[in-house]
Amino acid sequence: MEVVVALSFAFLVFPFPSAVGALSSNYYDHKCPQFESIVRGAVEKATSNDKTVPSGLLRMHFHDCFIRGCDGSVLLNSKGKNKAEKDGPPNISLHALYVIDNAKKALEVECPGVVSCADILATVARDAVVVSGGPYWEVPNGRKDGRISLASDTRQLPAPVFNISQLKQNFAQKGLSTKDLVALSGGHTLGFAHCSTFQNRIHNFNATHDVDPTLNPFFASRLRSVCPAHNKVRNAGAPLDSSNLIFDNAYYKLLLQGKSMFSSDQALLTTPKTKELVSKFASSRKAFERAFVSSMIKMSSLTGGEEIRRDCRVVN
Ligand code: HEM
Ligand SMILES: *[C@@H]1O[C@H](CO)[C@@H](O)[C@H](O)[C@H]1NC(C)=O
Ligand SMILES: *[C@@H]1O[C@H](CO)[C@@H](O)[C@H](O)[C@H]1NC(C)=O
Ligand SMILES: *[C@@H]1O[C@H](CO)[C@@H](O)[C@H](O)[C@H]1NC(C)=O
């Protein structure tokens, strides 16, 4: 009895013991009631003009969170000799940053100095999924913006040539599990890949195979025609999945058919546990959506900043 009382008392005093300074899903309800609608409006407006906006926003949030936590560091401009993340090597598909700028401008008018750029980025990523037909979830907010952005930090991002042990290790360094890895890779249901990111699979794959033999041969030859060995077309590439404007589970179905873009996608089929998850998500869109939402909330809770930036591209 005493133990029960003591425990429930502790619970009242510290309702969320690990949540000191943590995020909450109604963070802006009173601080900035227009937050959700302004952000959503910015995403919808931009998407109606450019269908590639949602994929850009989703990937940008992932990059933000994997470097110094979700602190908006990916948004900062290079300054003087300091080359920012944005200008680091894997920046090839970072785009749609103007959507964050537009939302921030409108938010500074309604609630000046209140909304962090990191929260805007986390929330536009959710809205990017929603406008693409994917699931809705409440985004925990209350992040702060960071003051550091280094191009050299982009080495911490997983590379498309990673094998399964490298991927698992990379995610584990961020406190993310193997299930998170498989579920979040489903982000590749949206968007586009440039030739350079899957070149390793379609030319000089290894000593015995010019083309990755795990690729469907027809799919591989199509990729080879878009991306010849000495590709000169700057923006050439291919959609990440056949319905790349729709947030669905087609990525997993295609993966099982040898129609994935990156070695890192294919790697998910190389251990029994990850393969089982791929099959589960391929056969149930609901199961994928549930797992994706839960892993997104986990990833987007990696925080790190210290201020509310006035302009998302420069520190205060
Ligand atoms: C598992 C490790 C991952 C690797 C190795 C990886 C790698 C890549 C690469 C190389 C591209 C193509 C970039 C280009 O050519 O422009 C890409 C695109 C993309 N990735 Fe990932 N990614 C990973 C995880 C994720 C995660 C966790 C998400 C989000 C939840 C994500 C979302 C996207 C999206 C939406 C695109 C398309 C971007 C666009 O069309 O602009 N990726 N990824
Ligand atoms: C990517 O980096 C290069 C230089 O490294 C820079 O010229 C380019 O503008 C950057 N792209 C984006 C989208 O920031
Ligand atoms: C993955 O790649 C690393 C680095 O090249 C290598 O040491 C490791 O043995 C590879 N693991 C698997 C499962 O292929
Ligand atoms: C090339 O890759 C294939 C498929 O992964 C593999 O079976 C083969 O042993 C590899 N060859 C060499 C020389 O590594």
Automatic annotation (TrEMBL):
**Alphabetized UniProt keyword annotations:** Calcium, Disulfide bond, Glycoprotein, Heme, Hydrogen peroxide, Iron, Metal-binding, Oxidoreductase, Peroxidase, Secreted, Signal
From the record, give the cysteines joined by S-S bonds. Answer: C32-C111, C65-C70, C117-C312, C195-C227
Q: Using the record's annotation, list all stretches that form the Plant heme peroxidase family profile domain.
A: 22-316
What is annotated as the active site?
H63 (proton acceptor)
**Predominant cellular place of this UniProt entry's protein:** secreted
Chain positions recorded as heme b binding sites: H188
Would you indicate the residue range of the signal peptide?
Answer: 1-21
Q: What does the record note about the cofactor?
A: Binds 2 calcium ions per subunit. Binds 1 heme b (iron(II)-protoporphyrin IX) group per subunit.
Q: What is this protein called?
A: Peroxidase
Q: Give the GO cellular component terms, alphabetically.
A: extracellular region
Q: What does this protein do?
A: Removal of H(2)O(2), oxidation of toxic reductants, biosynthesis and degradation of lignin, suberization, auxin catabolism, response to environmental stresses such as wounding, pathogen attack and oxidative stress. These functions might be dependent on each isozyme/isoform in each plant tissue.
Q: In which residues is substrate bound?
A: P158
Q: Where is this site: Transition state stabilizer?
A: R59
Q: Which family does it belong to?
A: Belongs to the peroxidase family. Classical plant (class III) peroxidase subfamily. Belongs to the peroxidase family. Ascorbate peroxidase subfamily.
Q: Which cellular compartments is it found in? A: Secreted
Listed binding positions for Ca(2+) 2 are: T189, D241, D248
Q: Which cofactor does it need?
A: Ca(2+); heme b
Q: Does the keyword Iron apply?
A: yes
Reaction(s) this enzyme catalyzes, per UniProt: 2 a phenolic donor + H2O2 = 2 a phenolic radical donor + 2 H2O
For this protein, the Enzyme Commission number is 1.11.1.7
Organism from which the protein derives: Hibiscus trionum (Flower of an hour)
Q: Which GO terms of the molecular function aspect are on file?
A: heme binding; lactoperoxidase activity; metal ion binding
**Please, which domain of life does this record's source organism belong to?**
Eukaryota
- Binding site residues for Ca(2+) 1: D64, G69, D71, S73, E85
User: What Pfam families does its record include?
Assistant: peroxidase
